[in-house]
Amino acid sequence: MTGPSRSPLRGVTVIDLGQIYNGPYAGFLLAMAGADVIKVEPLEGEPLRKRGGQNLSLALAMLNSNKRDIAINLKHPEGKALLIELTKGADILLENYAPGVLDRLGVGAAVLQAANPRLIYASGTGYGLSGPDRDNLAMDLTVQAVGGIMSINGPPDGPPMKAGLALCDFLGGVHLYAAIATALYERSVTGTGRVVEVAMQEAVYPALATNLTSLHNNGGRQPPRTGNNHPAGTSAPYNVYPAKDGHIAIICVREEHWHNLLRAIGQEESKDDPRFADQWTRAKNREAVDALVAGWTVHLPKQEAFARLQAQHVPAAPVRDLVEVTNDAHMHARGMLNWVDHPALGRVVLPHSPLRFHGETRPALNPSPELGAHTRAILMEKLGLDASAIDNLVRAGVVGEGG
Amino acid sequence: MTGPSRSPLRGVTVIDLGQIYNGPYAGFLLAMAGADVIKVEPLEGEPLRKRGGQNLSLALAMLNSNKRDIAINLKHPEGKALLIELTKGADILLENYAPGVLDRLGVGAAVLQAANPRLIYASGTGYGLSGPDRDNLAMDLTVQAVGGIMSINGPPDGPPMKAGLALCDFLGGVHLYAAIATALYERSVTGTGRVVEVAMQEAVYPALATNLTSLHNNGGRQPPRTGNNHPAGTSAPYNVYPAKDGHIAIICVREEHWHNLLRAIGQEESKDDPRFADQWTRAKNREAVDALVAGWTVHLPKQEAFARLQAQHVPAAPVRDLVEVTNDAHMHARGMLNWVDHPALGRVVLPHSPLRFHGETRPALNPSPELGAHTRAILMEKLGLDASAIDNLVRAGVVGEGG
Question: What is the ipTM of this complex?
Answer without folding.
Answer: 0.97
